[in-house]
Amino acid sequence: MDSTDSTSTARTNATSPGPGRARQDTIYRSGVAGIRPKVPTDAAGLERAARRAMSRKAWAYVNGAAGEGRTRDNNREAFDRYRIVPRMAHGVKQRDLSTTILGQELTSPVLLAPVGAGALVHPDSDLMIARAAARADVPYVVSNQGSSPLEEIASTYRNARHTTESSRNAGHWFQLYWSTDETLVDSLIARAEDSGAGALVVTLDTTVLGWRPQDLNLGSLPFSRGQGIAQYTSDHRFLQIVRRRLRDRTSGGTAGVRVTPAAVASLFSIARHHPGPTLRNLLAPEPRASVETFLDIYSNPGLDWDMLATLRHRTHLPVVVKGVLHPDDAERAFEAGADAVVVSNHGGRQVDGAVASLDALVEIRERLGDGPTVLLDSGVRTGRDVAVAVALGADAVLLGRPHLYGLAVAGERGVQEVVENVLAELDLTMALTGASDIASLRRTELRRECPCGTPVSVPPPR
């Protein structure tokens, strides 16, 4: 770039209205012609629209929670207890939302969280989310329970990224569920490295599946119908395990399965989601054996800190430990060699009545101090939520259900609009509270409402 281009770019940046004003302008200008946003700009409206758009089984899985939904509700109630104290006349003409996580530049403190079995919403969910994330310029944490192979998702993200004006973000990360087969763990790690992933996100809180009545009452588990296991059926080591089990006759049979219309539909679903022609898959034992093998080995209830510590010599990627809620566990994660932790209760999907992630964040940041990298997942719905999380000590947040809601409502464009709306509100919240960048946002004053209703000042975490 020559000096003329540099001057022009600087002048453009100096007069940029920021993502908040830009998003408002887009919506209001369309409104002049009577065009309203297809994707609701409020969290409650988005959720209602997504429910109308999803099938019953898809809604049960995506929106469902453990037990009576107490943890999911706790996550939202925790955010609702905090009050922002705006500061005036700070001359915040421009806001810089960028930050650095694990040495990687991000254009904002927002990443898209891994969400499994997205094929319930759309067959190409992961590819559509990847394109939308790239165009919105946010990293995408690819799910280990994805509906497309990691390599295809990573390629889709990179190709879409080349079409954007700004491409400073850290790209894709990869989520890892620790299998009972260690050679499969190594294979998934190697694929993450080869795909160019920016980090390995090891999920701790799903060593067994939580009690989820919404799925149970429908007798619905997407993985049993071949959905959400593409990372496995595209893995050479996993397929070796499947074929060995077939030789040993420990998988692939249909004994004990009643022949009903639903069973036939499930068989077609398994065949359709397995690599290769559907007709061939209907006649072959491998697709059914793959589902059974996945259900047997995808997670490891015996996972412990010593096993996690082995990652330091098994990968060169930054290791992010997801699913931490107790300060002691956060310390153990870093002692085991983690580069960052994600404070998360899996969106309330695992333990009913667990502590809210936001409340756990406050305790963990207080214990760890300023240095370690801490991200927040679970309960984030709006730009205001992002601002509160950062003010309470999060270096960045993961946005989960909302982006899948956007996918259900308006496809790829819906995901992008959800991200744009969140970033727009974050930008405007910063402007209206006197925060010019993420560092000053961390100093935003908050007040926490006690159960008695009396606000209590919360000192900035750093």
UniProtKB/TrEMBL annotation:
Residues 1-32 are annotated as: Disordered. Residues 1-16 have a biased composition (Polar residues). It comes from the Bacteria. The keyword rRNA-binding does not apply. The keyword Oxidoreductase applies. Its cofactor is FMN. Coiled coil: none annotated. FMN binds at residues 114-116, 143, 175, 203, 322, 344, 377-381, 400-401. The active site is at 346 (proton acceptor). Glyoxylate binds at residues 61, 177, 212, 346, 349. Keywords: Flavoprotein, FMN, Oxidoreductase. Belongs to the FMN-dependent alpha-hydroxy acid dehydrogenase family. This is Alpha-hydroxy-acid oxidizing protein.
